[in-house]
Amino acid sequence: MKAVATVVLNRTYASEGEYFRVSQGGNIRNIIFQPGQFDCATETLLNQYNPQNIYNMNPTEIHYYIADWALSGNKLTEIGQCLWYLNPFRPNCSNIFPSNGSGTFQTRLGKHCFYRPTEKYKDT
């Protein structure tokens, strides 16, 4: 959860590219609710109701702890400036993500691969 929070904050405070425009000066809500970014922030997926959306969840102490941790400016060092993550449902992470080449592999934590921006990201 800390790794995902780090990615969200990296997007929120990006100084260029797509997330710079989306955050409009650091608006975390714009980043979280950007269409197509976080499945948990949408009520429908593939034209079907998404029962695992945030509106159906009851936060626990760990969720509040992670939010406070991130909003206090903390980040996981190993995530660095990563702007993307995904679970590839396979043992290896691809070297490039997304497919437009704007991200390059940085690290894997658990089942998730994390990607930092390349020079191409500036043009997104």
Write a brief caption for the model:
This protein is an alpha+beta fold. Helices cover 27% and strands 16% of the residues.
End-to-end gap: 26 Å
By DSSP, the count of extended strands is 5
- Count of DSSP helices? 4
Kindly state the percentage of residues in helix. 25-40%
**Percent of sequence in beta strands:** 15-25%
How many structural domains? 1
The best one-word shape is: globular
> What is the C-alpha radius of gyration, as a whole number of Å?
15 Å
Structural class: alpha+beta
Strand order in space, largest sheet = 3-5-4
Topology as a string of helices (H) and strands (E)? HHHEEHEEE
* Low-pLDDT segments, ≥5 res: none
Mean pLDDT: 95
Largest sheet: 3 strands, antiparallel
Give a description of the structure.
With 124 residues, this protein is α+β, with helices and mostly antiparallel strands. The protein has helices spanning 2-12, 17-23, 28-32, 61-71; strands spanning 44-45, 48-49, 84-86, 103-109, 112-117. Strands 3-5-4 form a three-stranded antiparallel sheet, with helices on one face. It has a two-stranded antiparallel ribbon with strand order 1-2. It is globular, with a radius of gyration of 15 Å. It starts with a helix and ends in a 7-residue tail after the last strand. 18% of the residues are buried. The mean pLDDT is 95.
